[in-house]
Amino acid sequence: MASSVNPTVRRRRLGQELRRLRELKGMTAEEVAERLLVSQSKISRLENGRRSISQRDVRDLCGVYEVEDQRIVDSLMQMAKDSRQQGWWHAFGDVPYSVYIGLETDAASLRVYDPQVVPGLLQTRQYAEALIAGALPETAQAEVEKRVQVRMRRQERISSPDNPLRLWTVLDEAALRRVVGNKELMREQLEFLVEQSQLPHVTVQVIPFEMGAHPGLNGQYAILEFPDAADSSVVYIEGVTSDLYLEKPNDVQKYSVMYEHLRAQALNVEQSRQFIADAAKQYAR
């Protein structure tokens, strides 16, 4: 059964703590790897939270770092145990972007820029199905349906009455003009987008074609921020065969500044809502 513990976040926090202990010891990842007779890449993956970590790994690392306080060792061992539990998304089988879902599930706020399509958290079921089927033409219908179900489940963060995700979305006009499915489906999608944009924790802005070149032309990305100060912000860039997660402060800062430029060049909230509503009416003709 899926646990309320978020294994992705547990792995990330544990990795950060292990990195801190290594740095306090003044050791490089290569030196640790040599001591444990493992690859340096394993140590790096453990520290960045991209690899599942066992209690044995924690025990061995604490030994190398000469951690004498048993309470610290016990705490890290418990985090390792928690990190191996299953999040809600595991009930859907092998989800390619499960690391991202784990981060999104625990995030306090999310800033998204998308130049091509409406972001997943603001999609209707019909739009999501048509989009996934079109983007993955060789995927079986059962797999398409599974991905749609995961996307709908993710949207519960938007509708949560207790802890809604603070979502800021900047869209290129192309996302409104690209006919996914058919015109009727697009009209319903854009009307839904207008409806969602009126939620107090959801902000939607549009960059019209007439604005010309802008900092988002390099492609889609998202910035996740977390309620716990110990969890650093993450820039997520989706790829075809693998995804990119940037956590270095300098990288996050560069993408954050770029996002501020996008917000400044986009129509304001009211103008954007009207722009989307007008686009929806055009699909009704």
UniProtKB/TrEMBL annotation:
Cross-referenced Pfam families: DUF5753, HTH_31
SUPFAM superfamilies: lambda repressor-like DNA-binding domains (SSF47413)
HTH cro/C1-type domain mapped to chain residues: 18-72
UniProt xrefs under Gene3D superfamilies: lambda repressor-like DNA-binding domains
A single GO molecular function term of this UniProt record: DNA binding
Listed name of the protein: XRE family transcriptional regulator
